[in-house]
Structure formats: C-alpha cells, structure tokens
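FORM 7B: Structural annotation worksheet

SECTION A. Query
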Amino acid sequence: MRQECHELLWEAGRRIEKLTGPPPICPDSPECYAQMAAFPLPACDGATPQGRLYNEHRVGVPVIEWSDRRLVRVSAQGYNTRQDVDVLVGALAELLGQMPA
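SECTION B. Predicted structure
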C-alpha cells in the first residue's frame, strides 16, 4: 500500500509541477518522501488558495509559506485515488488561472 500511495503522490507531484512551473523542492526519490510532499506554487496569498480549494472544490490541502515560498502539501493515503488527483490538479488549474500574477 505504501508503494501505491507513493506512486500516486509522484503522479500528483509531476502534474502539479507541470501546471505551476516552479522546480521541485526535493529530489524525486522514495528516500526523500513517501506519502506526503510539498510542491511550490506561484506567488500568491497562502490563505486564499487553501480556503478556495476547500470551499469551492472540497479539496483539503494545506497551502503553507516556507522560506519565502508558497507550497501546497499533498498526502496520498490508502483511500485516495487517481480521481482525487484529477480533482486536485483541476482545482489548482482553475484557481491559479484566476489568481493575479
């Protein structure tokens, strides 16, 4: 189960990175992360995307500030599916398309 969750998180990470553009903050290795990782977002107000992701899409992911960067923290558990990744990536795409540059 742990390997399946890692693979799902890996897929989510690649799709988020393709969508957002900033480079990853850690190497893509099971030694660096297993079922939870953070991915950079473009500059934005951290509270706004987190609230909107939940209120508009029912996606519960923290958006945090770390070292002057905004990160979305994603975890993959046994109950998560590729459809959950689709919803997350779609919601991020919609939200980031509406955020001021």
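SECTION C. Observations
The beta strands are 36-41, 63-66, 69-75. The chain has one domain: 2-98.

SECTION D. Sign-off
Analyst initials: ____
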